[in-house]
Amino acid sequence: MYRYAAFVLFLAFGSVFQLSHGIEVNVKDKAGKLCLYANLMVNFSVSYEVAGNKSATVEFELPSNSTTDGSECDDRSSTLKLNFGEHSWSVNFTINGETYQADYITFSYNLSDATVFPNSVLNDTLAVTVKPHITDVAKDTCYSCKSKDMIEDISVNQTLWNVLIQAFVSNGSKSENISSCAADLPTTPVAPTTHTTSTTTAAPVTNATSPAPPTTTAPTPTLPTPSTGKYIINSDDNSTACLLATFGLRIGFKQAEKYQEMNLEPNTTTVSGSCGVNSSELVLVSNSMTIMFTFTNDTKKFRLHALNITGKTSSGVVFSEANTNLSLWEAAISSSYMCNKEQNYTITSLLTLYTFDLQVQPFGVKKGVFSTAEECFLDSDLSFLVPIAVGVALSFLIILVLISYLIGRRKSRTGYQSV
Ligand SMILES: *[C@@H]1O[C@H](CO)[C@@H](O)[C@H](O)[C@H]1NC(C)=O
Ligand SMILES: *[C@@H]1O[C@H](CO)[C@@H](O)[C@H](O)[C@H]1NC(C)=O
Ligand SMILES: *[C@@H]1O[C@H](CO)[C@@H](O)[C@H](O)[C@H]1NC(C)=O
Ligand SMILES: *[C@@H]1O[C@H](CO)[C@@H](O)[C@H](O)[C@H]1NC(C)=O
Ligand SMILES: *[C@@H]1O[C@H](CO)[C@@H](O)[C@H](O)[C@H]1NC(C)=O
Ligand SMILES: *[C@@H]1O[C@H](CO)[C@@H](O)[C@H](O)[C@H]1NC(C)=O
Ligand SMILES: *[C@@H]1O[C@H](CO)[C@@H](O)[C@H](O)[C@H]1NC(C)=O
Ligand SMILES: *[C@@H]1O[C@H](CO)[C@@H](O)[C@H](O)[C@H]1NC(C)=O
Ligand SMILES: *[C@@H]1O[C@H](CO)[C@@H](O)[C@H](O)[C@H]1NC(C)=O
Ligand SMILES: *[C@@H]1O[C@H](CO)[C@@H](O)[C@H](O)[C@H]1NC(C)=O
Ligand SMILES: *[C@@H]1O[C@H](CO)[C@@H](O)[C@H](O)[C@H]1NC(C)=O
Ligand SMILES: *[C@@H]1O[C@H](CO)[C@@H](O)[C@H](O)[C@H]1NC(C)=O
């Protein structure tokens, strides 16, 4: 009976096609319509304990004959589950507004499988849960990532590549529209070239048929403008706000030759911090980064004095960059600092901070609202005067030269006549 049920479930929920390039999965909903499509390759590297206090590491691929029992989808969440032998690999997806994302990957492996884990001391089934780098995929598009993406954990590394997934298929057929991962996007130079010595660097010939994983070149993801977050710290004694900050934030991190940008997602950011007389702190923690802002009060003005950012790039590299000698976002104590235009700040040689729609007030917040704003120069109404002033000055100079020329001419002519 149970076997029969499982068989029906299998028929109802999924089918697997073995392709030369990975495993293709079609998961159907209860009405029999395609609701999740996936075509991907996964390599596992697992270290486990063997006799003599030693550890062994095995590498294997997600077999293409895996089954899809346990895969399912509904309107808000979907699960891709692939089972092979005593093991299983699954990814959970959720919808988040107009985008969807993979929330976690769970890999469960049974060490008593001696063909995969020979000489294992343990015979337990272990599971690792990791967070994949599949986020902000536009609804009704397929997420595509041909590049290798290694997700590290203590004893298991998972490498995903040639990934094509549509976790929410709306009308029964896979979308032709693709959301590519950052690593797949064409590379553009990021180094600011101050003077253009046009050395014609031979553009790499893109060959559509060959899967060329860009491993050494720097991918520059074109990220959407980060969403604006509103962050509030309350004073200890009173539940009134003592620090206010709103901004959209992006960081750029240089790692070896690679440069990578990441947006702070306000939706998944937790806020903490403290207000002091001479120093206030704002700490933002998201899935990908932790940012600590330290503001100081020098009696007349406040400024952003220190910034400490720790994070993890999509390739899993952990970084921590800090500058404790900054002088940014300066304004009078009884006011707030505002800068609506996009700004970039070099925090360290490796880290750049980008802000959008910025307004902060780390001291003297009254009634939970921002005090009068002191705007950054780029925002201020006077900034448009700069080109006008330059123009006026130039015209003045030209007139001056003309006048002196005319006077000079007349003088020389009269001089000539008088002789
Ligand atoms: C080997 O394992 C045993 C018991 O698990 C432990 O007592 C011993 O210290 C270990 N030896 C080494 C060299 O780690
Ligand atoms: C994946 O694993 C297979 C078998 O172990 C190996 O041949 C292949 O090179 C691996 N691929 C990657 C990208 O690690
Ligand atoms: C953030 O959450 C709000 C509601 O909670 C939602 O409307 C918005 O689309 C979300 N934004 C993103 C980028 O997920
Ligand atoms: C692990 O595999 C062994 C041998 O195949 C089996 O007896 C055991 O039930 C499995 N454990 C789990 C949790 O599935
Ligand atoms: C698993 O290991 C324990 C202790 O090492 C042993 O008692 C048990 O019989 C083993 N179970 C299997 C299924 O091999
Ligand atoms: C995972 O990858 C890291 C970095 O390449 C390596 O140091 C580690 O040994 C790997 N772990 C496993 C289990 O393969
Ligand atoms: C796919 O992209 C085309 C062109 O951008 C657009 O017209 C179409 O609506 C998109 N389809 C889906 C399902 O998003
Ligand atoms: C594409 O790559 C293949 C194999 O690497 C090669 O034979 C072919 O000439 C390439 N085509 C172009 C247009 O570069
Ligand atoms: C708490 O805040 C209210 C107004 O926001 C103020 O009237 C009151 O004095 C404050 N209490 C303390 C203990 O600071
Ligand atoms: C700023 O510092 C001065 C001197 O330490 C202090 O008197 C003042 O209250 C502080 N301002 C705020 C808003 O905390
Ligand atoms: C930055 O924060 C990290 C993690 O909290 C910490 O280890 C490091 O010491 C901090 N760096 C500075 C300069 O404060
Ligand atoms: C940083 O800002 C300056 C002007 O504020 C601008 O010229 C420059 O292009 C910006 N750099 C980046 C990488 O956005």
Task: Describe the overall structure.
By secondary structure, this protein is mainly beta. It has two domains: 183 residues, Porin (Beta Barrel), CATH 2.40.160.110; 155 residues, Porin (Beta Barrel). It is 11% helix and 46% strand. It has two helices and 27 strands. The strands form four sheets. Strands 1, 2, 3, 4, 11, 12, 13 and 14 form an eight-stranded mixed β-sheet that branches. Strand 21 and strand 22 form a beta hairpin. The longest helix has 34 residues. The protein is elongated, with a radius of gyration of 30 Å. 27% of the residues are buried. The N terminus is likely disordered. The structure holds 2-acetamido-2-deoxy-beta-D-glucopyranose (NAG) (12 copies). One 2-acetamido-2-deoxy-beta-D-glucopyranose (NAG) binds next to loops.
| SSE series | HEEEEEEEEEEEEEEEEEEEEEEEEEEEH
Uncertain stretches: 1-13, 189-221
Share in helix: 10-25%
Mean pLDDT: 82
For the biggest sheet, the summary is:
8 strands, mixed
The termini sit apart by 128 Å
Q: List the total number of helices.
A: 2
Choose one word for the global shape.
elongated
CATH topology of the largest domain, what is it called? Porin
Report the radius of gyration as a whole number of Å.
Answer: 30 Å
Beta content comes to: over 45%
